[in-house]
Every structure is written in structure tokens, then in C-alpha cells.
């Protein structure tokens, strides 16, 4: 299981890659492996500003549907359009081509509460 050191993580198994006040968000390698084969990603919150832990979309696997939670307050700027026709990118490359949303962070202080790779490894028992 991959847990890149440069990312931040939530207790809900989302990752966040910060680039200034912009960030990319997806689900972790652990989360995608627990879900199994992902068949659909639904995110209809583009243009909305949501608070930390708000549901910004859902991911559907063969046997389950899971909510996606924002790890910090943010405005949803863009959805990864590749996921519409290739949702399995989340399984194959969760930290790269399988990213889910691009956001503008609205409360940078909330990033301090996120987990680093070591803490997230402990959370998932890796």
C-alpha cells in the first residue's frame, strides 16, 4: 500500500496535495482497496464552497457506495473529467490520474489538523 510522504491525509481516507491555495483531493490507496473495483464517481458540487467534512460527492464500487468528505473547507473548482469514462483510474492510480477534485482552500488553518504520512500509516495499520 502506497502512502506518499508529501501528501496530507484525513481520518476519512482522503488525501490532499497542496499547491499554494489550490489543492487536489482524492481517496487513498487504502480506501480504494477497501472499496474494490470502482465503477462510478459522482461529484456535482463544482462551484460550491463547502465546509470541512461536508460531502462533496460519492464513489460507487461494485458492492457499495461511499460518500466523499472534504478534508478542509474549500471551493470546488474542478472535477477530474477523466473519471467520467475511466472511474477505474481511482483503483489504478489513486494519487495521480485518479484524483477527484481540484479546490481552492478557504480555511488553511484546517490543514494543520490533517495527518501526515506516518500518522496515516498508523491509522490504517500499515
Structure description:
By secondary structure, the chain is of the alpha+beta class. The chain has one domain: OB fold (Dihydrolipoamide Acetyltransferase, E2P). It is 18% helix and 35% strand. It contains four helices and nine strands; from the N terminus they run E-E-E-H-E-E-E-E-E-H-H-E-H. The protein has helices at residues 29-35, 82-85, 89-92, 117-124, and strands spanning 8-9, 14-19, 22-27, 38-42, 49-50, 55-61, 65-69, 74-79, 101-105. Strands 1-2-3-9-8-5 form a six-stranded antiparallel sheet. It has a three-stranded antiparallel sheet with strand order 4-6-7. A hairpin with a 4-residue loop joins strand 1 and strand 2 (14-19). The protein starts with 7 loop residues before the first strand and ends with a helix. The model has no long low-confidence stretch (mean pLDDT 96).
Structural class call reads alpha+beta
CATH superfamily: RNA polymerase II/Efflux pump adaptor protein, barrel-sandwich hybrid domain
Helix content estimate: 10-25%
Order of helices and strands: EEEHEEEEEHHEH
Domain count, please report it: 1
Shape: globular
Strand content: 25-35%
CATH topology description: OB fold (Dihydrolipoamide Acetyltransferase, E2P)
**Cα-to-Cα separation, first versus last residue:** 8 Å
- The CATH architecture designation is Beta Barrel
Amino acid at each position: 500500500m502506497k502512502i506518499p510522504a508529501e501528501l496530507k491525509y484525513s481520518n476519512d481516507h482522503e488525501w490532499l496535495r497542496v499547491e499554494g491555495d489550490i489543492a487536489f483531493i482524492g481517496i487513498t490507496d487504502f480506501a480504494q482497496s477497501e472499496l474494490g473495483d470502482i465503477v462510478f464517481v459522482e461529484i456535482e458540487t463544482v462551484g460550491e464552497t463547502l465546509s470541512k467534512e461536508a460531502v462533496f460527492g460519492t464513489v460507487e464500487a461494485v458492492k457499495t457506495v461511499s460518500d466523499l468528505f472534504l478534508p478542509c473547507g474549500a471551493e470546488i473548482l474542478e472535477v477530474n473529467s477523466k473519471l467520467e469514462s475511466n472511474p477505474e483510474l481511482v483503483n489504478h492510480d489513486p494519487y495521480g490520474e485518479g484524483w477527484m477534485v481540484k479546490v481552492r482552500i478557504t480555511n488553511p488553518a484546517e490543514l494543520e489538523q490533517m495527518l501526515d504520512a506516518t500518522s496515516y500509516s498508523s491509522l490504517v495499520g500499515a
